[in-house]
């Protein structure tokens, strides 16, 4: 995940990228509800009107950030699927990559996968504003399906897919939230959590 890791002081930084970088940091540190366009404008030293030239509202700005994160991860998934020799090897690699990319860019991970917002509610699909996220999820789901016996029910595929995603996401969220906890060797921990979850698929 090569999410921009730029500094706010750089005069060469394009304004839209400056806005996105500052917004990602603010969302990750304060949560969606506590961030306003005015607060963002103050952070980067511009007027709110300047930000509205690039994004019509906070929702569009937030969705732009999530889309950027999902696009990066979807690209990684597609590359893994194109070279993997077996569905289980591909699935393990995808989930390991998921954790690695989250640790490399914790703010992007918080915004993309850990943020509570009012964008998803009981009336809307979680993927309504999130087509790249849906494609990403479907790729993993399809890979899980190939790991399972022929004739497996859609319910079993769904539960199995969500269980391995939960293993990877749960581990990533813990590592991102408590980076100084004594986890032991992270690569060994990833293998223990992810490989065990994938190898349990029968």
UniProtKB/TrEMBL annotation:
HTH tetR-type domain span: 13-73
DNA-binding region, residue range(s): 36-55
Keywords: DNA-binding
InterPro entries documented for this protein: Homeodomain-like_sf, HTH-type_Tx_Regulator, HTH_TetR, Tet_transcr_reg_TetR-rel_C_sf
GO molecular function: DNA binding
The name this protein goes by in its record: Transcriptional regulator, TetR family
Protein species of origin: Maridesulfovibrio ferrireducens
């Amino acid at each position: 995940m090569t999410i921009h890791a730029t500094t706010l002081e750089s005069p060469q930084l394009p304004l839209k990228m400056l806005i996105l970088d500052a917004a990602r940091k603010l969302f990750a540190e304060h949560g969606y509800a506590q961030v306003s366009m005015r607060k963002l404008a103050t952070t980067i030293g511009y007027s709110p009107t300047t930000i509205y030239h690039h994004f019509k509202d906070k929702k569009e700005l937030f969705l732009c950030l999530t889309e950027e994160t999902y696009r990066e991860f979807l690209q990684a998934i597609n590359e893994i699927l194109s070279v993997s020799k077996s569905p289980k090897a591909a699935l393990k690699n995808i989930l390991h990559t998921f954790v690695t990319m989250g640790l490399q860019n914790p703010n992007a991970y918080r915004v993309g996968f850990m943020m509570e917002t009012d964008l998803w509610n009981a009336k809307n699909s979680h993927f309504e504003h999130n087509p790249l996220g849906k494609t990403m999820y479907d790729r993993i789901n399809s890979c899980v399906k190939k790991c399972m016996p022929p004739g497996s029910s859609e319910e079993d595929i769904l539960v199995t897919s969500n269980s391995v995603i939960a293993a990877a996401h749960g581990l990533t969220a813990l590592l991102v939230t408590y980076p100084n906890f004594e986890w032991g060797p992270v690569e060994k921990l990833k293998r223990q959590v992810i490989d065990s979850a994938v190898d349990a698929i029968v």
